[in-house]
Specification:
Layout (H helix, E strand, L loop, with lengths): L3 H10 L2 H6 L5 E3 L2 E4 L11 E4 L4 E4 L5 E2 L1 H9 L3 H11 L10 H29 L2 H9 L4 H6 L3 E3 L16 H5 L3 E3 L5 E3 L4 E7 L5 E8 L7 E3 L15 H11 L8 H4 L1
Antiparallel strand pairs: 1-2, 2-3, 3-4, 4-5, 6-9, 7-8, 9-10, 10-11
Helix pairs in contact: 3-4
Amino acid sequence: MIPRDFIQTLLGRVDIVDTVERYVPLKKTGSNFVARCPFHSEKTPSFSVNPAKQFYYCFGCGASGTALGFIMEYTGANFVDAVHELAQQVGLDVPVEHTAGQVARTEARLDLGDVLRRAADFYRAQLKVSESAIQYLKRRGLTGAIAARFGLGYAPEGWRSLAAALPDYDSRQLVEAGLVIDNDEGKRYDRFRGRVMFPILDSRGEVIGFGGRVIGTGEPKYLNSPETPLFEKGRELYGLTQARRAIRDQHRVIVVEGYMDVI
């Protein structure tokens, strides 16, 4: 939980003009700054930023708020993420009040996040040297730039390929992260093998899971990460991180079925 007094300190340190100008070009008019509103379509600027009151207001659509509210509205970030973004802009560390149980859960999530990041790095490196995966993506109309934008990778066909990237391959965290499976005989193997990998990101752009598409004729065609402390399938939308700006600009969302449909 973020202390309430820190929010007031944070808002007292930021300059809303600097914050808004990171995303929207402003023009000084009198004592205020104006722009075409980023929250609705318009030809004449009706979006006003008041540096004296540290407040923004749109006379066209009624959007209003502080620098913190602007980040939430413009980027789609939740409150906590917006606080961290704003604090980073002014060089403040966000204090958090935790119980002992919350500390343990936070540390566990950070550990899982690190494991997933290392796995994503490994899969991306493997894609660069897998001709079959590269050709598959080309046949589907994807370029290298698109693959890089979505962080696509490739999981080799070997049963324990991840061991090359994760020296702690026998760690329980790999099971919790959904990267490996322990069979009834206690033998461990990679969950994803011979598949093009689609990293699933949270609202902050952090890897929380994967979808894997088999290249050949194997089954299942698509294999997803199981639910983990980081990944709840019903709460995530694949591609939202990459589509956020277009959604805001177009004022609409197109929902499709599969990973390749999104890309």
